Amino acid sequence: MRILTGNDLKTGAVIWWTGSDWSLHVADAVDVTGREDELARVEEAERRVNVPYAIDAEMHEGQPRPAHIKDRIRALGPTVRQDLTLKPADPDIRNWVI
Known about the structure:
By secondary structure, this protein is an alpha+beta fold. Helix content is about 20%, strand content about 30%. The chain has two helices and five strands. It has helices spanning about 35-45, 70-75; strands at about 1-10, 15, 20-25, 50-60, 65. A five-stranded antiparallel beta sheet has the order 3-2-1-4-5, covered by helices on one side. The mean pLDDT is about 85.
């Protein structure tokens, strides 16, 4: 499974491709396997996202989960203070093992 990520051009926030738009929540990401390069090109040209790229992911309890630790941290926010982390749409995301 491959999911598309990047940074919002206006805010710098980490965002995830939902199939039609971008979301702050990795749980909203969709599999883009085979279309990742084309989607990244189109979205970057639209100037909605900065440096979009595809990452490996796996389904974990029905939701996409980045395969690499770097991308898990990008998805959830800083690891040093819980009050700074992104408040995900799904509260069970905190049970992930990073």
